[in-house]
Please model this.
Amino acid sequence: MGVVNVTPDSFSDGGVFDDEPAAVAHAQRLIAEGAAIVDVGGESTRPGAAPVPLEDELERVIGVVEGISGARVSIDTMKVAVAERALDAGATYVNDVTAFRHEPEMAGLVADRKADCCLMHMLGEPRTMQDDPRYDDVVSEVKAFLEERLAFAVDAGIPEEHVCLDPGIGFGKTVEHNVELLGRLDELVAIGRPVLVGASRKRFLGRLLGDPDALTGPLAASVSAAVLAYERGASLFRAHDVREHVQGLRVAEAIV
Ligand code: HH2
Model:
């Protein structure tokens, strides 16, 4: 899954692809590099990010979704109105980082449109999620959350086969929490749905490498995290640098 951020402020590429032609061209490049899905988002969820008004988010993403061809399009949004217009414009996948908690009607929309969806764990909300996150056991708490959200989705009429699950790397987690989740990913895979991992460029990688103030993580560290997640059973990888992730994962696939 290649990342297409149509935002001025995303943590690693804000402002780089925030006009429509640049975002569409970027998406087509990621598809040429091997992305099976491109994830289009118009609202940054980086730690401390401010919410984006509906009209601004629509303005950023709908034309981009319409312009993409050659791969499945995912819409990265927590707003039903944005997801609905994106599905009208050709998206077939809804990536809601609140797992239908922000607007529970999102589940009904995904069910009606027979779309696929990703349900992600986040502790708190982006504005405050990195303020001292705590867990007794991060893996069992994330697992219980994802099981509950999966049951909610199925109750709303979404077939289980249309759901994938995501531990939400960096969303209300310390470096140690992220490492524990990736190391014990097999416990989340045991729920029985495909697991998506988004470690690409995240700050915990830069911090693991010794910079306590890092705001991003380097490419080699991102690919390393994806490969280890693959080895523990992850099957979707949300990445900014698709070519390098495809290379790393192809080699991992040949060896495992
Ligand atoms: N991470 C980001 C955004 N959306 N969705 C899922 N399912 N999993 C993730 O790990 C995930 C996500 C953050 O990355 P990015 O989109 O590059 O940054 P920003 O939120 O600042 O736009």
